[in-house]
Structure formats: C-alpha cells, structure tokens
Amino acid sequence: MSGAGRAGWGGLRIASALLRRVPWRPWRYTAADYRAAVAATPLASPLAGTPTTAVWDPDLPAALTELGARVEEEMVLDDLLTDLGGR
C-alpha cells in the first residue's frame, strides 16, 4: 500500500490529510490492493486504532475492519518495485 506508506488507520489519516493539501492519486492504496496484500502476507500485524474514512476509496475502511491487518510498504515492496519497472 502506498500513498501514505501503510494500510492502517494512521495511514488513512495521513493520506486524507495529504489529499486535503495536495492532489494525489492512490497507488496500490485501494480496498482491492489491501485485500491482495493481506492475502499475500500471512504474518501481518493486527490492526489497531480508531477507524476513519478514505475518500479516494470508500470500501477501504470496511476492508480494514473486516480483515484487521496492518500492511506496511516493506511487505509489498516487490509489487511496488515491479510497478516502477525495477526488480
């Protein structure tokens, strides 16, 4: 998950604050991306904190609530590098 660096409630808050100040598009920061990352990362940390919204993808908070896992950028680094054309 990118954009704010992680998929967790804190990451969604950071991304929302950034979005209010600068225009950006989500890059692997949607509910579908989160679900794929959790499926590929069986050792993800439990999600903690207070739920919030994600205006760029209203389904993302529901996915976080449902799966309850925190996904760090490092956990999906291979996917991010592939997107950038590197390996």
UniProtKB/TrEMBL annotation:
Superkingdom: Bacteria
Location of the DUF2399 domain: 9-84
Protein name according to UniProt: DUF2399 domain-containing protein
UniProt source species: Streptomyces lavenduligriseus
